[in-house]
Amino acid sequence: MKAMVIHQYGAAEQLQLAELPLPIPGEGQVRIKVAAAGVNPVDFHVRNGLLKDTGTHQLPLVLGWDAAGVIDALGTGVQAWQPGQEVMVFAPIGGQGCYAEYICVDADLLAAKPSQLSMTEAAAVPLAAVTAWQGLFKVGQLQPGQRVYIHGASGGVGGFAVQLAKARGAFVYASCSARSRDYVASLGADVCLDYQQQDFAEQLTELDLLFACVGGNQVLPRALPTLKSGGRLISTFDEIDPALAQAQGVDYQRMWVQPSGADLKQLAELLQSGQLRVQLDQVWPLHQAREALARSESGRALGKVVLQLAAD
Ligand SMILES: NC(=O)c1ccc[n+]([C@@H]2O[C@H](COP(=O)([O-])OP(=O)(O)OC[C@H]3O[C@@H](n4cnc5c(N)ncnc54)[C@H](OP(=O)(O)O)[C@@H]3O)[C@@H](O)[C@H]2O)c1
What we know:
The protein is α/β, with parallel strands linked by helices. 26% of the residues lie in helices and 29% in strands. The strands form three sheets. Strands 3, 5, 6, 7, 8, 15 and 16 form a seven-stranded mixed sheet that branches. Strands 11-10-9-12-13-14 form a six-stranded parallel sheet.
């Protein structure tokens, strides 16, 4: 099968088209014929060597950890799924990725593809939307009526987070640049702040939750005074000394998303009922994964970047 792999860690040119053996599903696994694969910042972080010294991966490594496609083969012991079913998945980041014609994943990580979504739209969902879900609800414990600020609301994670927080009944403050304002407002944000013109730390107080989907600019230390005592500060990337947050009565966590078929199924229901929608930024063919990754790495994607392997 064709796949985009790295043989060494490093810059864009390390990502190359390769011919790999067809993977065989193990016990409890399904093999998916990939129709589209999501592109996420973790892909270029891994390519650059973020996990190089952790022993997480063996090279050559297929990048990309979410996908949509059609089940093509079952391993032993799989009862819940059949060949031919259309599914989406967030695959474990510790394993081989989805920039490939086929992947094998544990069957309990799958969710059925919502019927009104194309394969490219469905591939845009799993990793970013599960991050938003777990960040807001599992780690952040957001409740109806609470005040939440989503920093970086126009990206993959932030766009889902705004919609999920609104659907939960929160009052949503969100930041983006001026060009993304209409998009973020259309997702349901109650107040949009232009992070290039307005300092959220001067505008916001008494927040229950601050979800930092984008780092940089000392966002975490500046966030602390905007939270009420007992409020929660959740970061997807930057880190601070937990003692700093503790001293201000803030519950701070640097989250690590975990693949979860159960969470993905709940997101699929919201997509199916139209309460959640998908914004595609750019779609590239598999062999142009370098270009797709460059778009993600630019930090300017409005919504999601996706690789398309089969016509929608
Ligand atoms: N810890 C975890 O488990 C986990 C899971 C998933 C993702 N992440 C991390 O979360 C981060 C976001 O991921 P993503 O997929 O959402 O990224 P993304 O889609 O690439 O984010 C792009 C967006 O970031 C916005 N942005 C750039 N600089 C900003 C700033 N200073 N303030 C506010 N917004 C800014 C851009 O908006 P404008 O173009 O409008 O400026 C753009 O829309 C990445 O660092 C990723 O590695 C972590």
